[in-house]
Design brief:
Elements: E1 15-21, H1 25-36, E2 44-50, H2 56-60, E3 68-73, H3 79-90, E4 96-100, E5 104-106, H4 110-120, E6 125-132, E7 135-141, E8 144-147, E9 152-155, H5 159-165, E10 168-169, E11 176-180, H6 181-187, H7 199-209, E12 214-224, H8 239-256, H9 259-267, H10 269-282, H11 288-304
Helix pairs in contact: 8-11, 10-11
Length: about 325
């Protein structure tokens, strides 16, 4: 453990990283390697395998040591469910839980900077700058906002906007989210009804409702393989993405918005769905009809209030 965490006599904070793996052991392995290479490595890494049917367990098992645990689930209960399994395993033993996508590569000083910010701040959660792995100069996330009238989240994607936006952010992406364990115990964990997508927006809303803040730490940085977790077998966005993104947006609106805001956000579904359908049909191939059907199925389930479906719609 780095001595930087012992400045001014302050005891070092303890951190558990939670990685959810689903049939993507190569990127999970690379993510773990980047965590271990940092100048401040986490005290514990918990890999939760979400019912992979490939060779993930065989290839991830050699990583196990006294600081890394591998939890094998029998079925894919969704990102939120898998992340919660890992977080609940560690939340009473560490000061912070770091939810981290397994397709991320952490810069050397990332955790050090996150913890340095946490020592000086009363915020409950902390997010780094997230850069595109395919174009490291491009900013994928530098904070975020949510327009309740339109029912739309947005990322800060320009470096110059980060300073203007300030340190606090309304929308904390689940791609990388360091949360105080005390906050998880008090506010709760990720909502498993969302299965995949929008669980981070819902969690951010609960933090705000509880009077908690999330802070952007520009000095902390990592690379994110944008789109890997959403990709289908053809390289584009998957049926799973289109279904759950459409359905869960409506789940969020039904849960949190009321009155005129709820009405306008629901009406915004029409142009958003039209945009996505145009994108799908502009890249016509043998899977186009399935993608469109998945999107419309998610919209229909969201409109009628059927949020019971769980599980991926396809195996990439």
């Amino acid at each position: 453990m780095s001595t930087v965490d012992r400045k001014d006599g302050v005891s070092p904070a303890t951190v558990a990283v939670v990685l959810v793996n689903w049939q993507n052991w190569e990127e999970t392995t690379a993510c773990v390697a980047s965590l271990r290479a940092g100048d401040r490595s986490p005290d514990r890494v918990i890999i939760v395998d979400n019912g992979s049917k490939d060779s993930s367990i065989q290839n991830l098992s050699p990583l196990i040591n006294r600081d890394l645990d591998l939890i094998q689930l029998t079925e894919n209960g969704g990102f939120a469910s898998g992340a919660n399994v890992g977080a609940k395993t560690a939340v009473n033993d560490v000061d912070f839980v770091w939810f981290l996508n397994n397709d991320c590569l952490v810069h050397e000083g990332c955790l050090h900077h996150l913890l340095s910010a946490a020592r000086k701040s009363s915020a409950s959660a902390f997010v780094p700058l997230i850069l595109n792995a395919s174009a490291p100069d491009e900013l994928y996330y530098g904070g975020g906002s949510f327009n309740p009238w339109l029912g739309r989240p947005s990322h800060v994607t320009r470096h110059r906007q980060v300073a203007r936006a300030g340190n606090t952010t309304r929308f904390a992406t689940g791609c990388s989210l360091l949360v105080r364990s005390a906050t998880l115990r008090e506010v709760g964990f990720l909502d498993e009804q969302f299965f995949l997508y929008w669980e981070d927006i819902e969690f951010s809303e609960r933090l705000l409702a509880a009077g908690r803040t999330t802070e952007v730490v520009p000095e902390a940085r990592l690379l994110h393989a944008q789109g890997t977790s959403s990709a289908g077998s053809g390289g584009g966005l998957s049926r799973t993405y289109y279904y759950y993104n459409a359905r869960n947006r409506l789940l969020y609106i039904r849960r949190f918005e009321t009155g005129a805001r709820k009405m306008t956000a629901m009406l915004m579904t029409i142009p958003l769905a039209t945009r996505d359908l145009v994108r799908i049909f502009l890249t016509w191939d043998h899977g186009t009809v399935q993608l469109a059907t998945s999107l419309l199925g998610g919209l229909w389930d969201g409109v009628k209030g059927d949020f019971e479906r769980r599980g991926p719609l396809e195996i990439p």
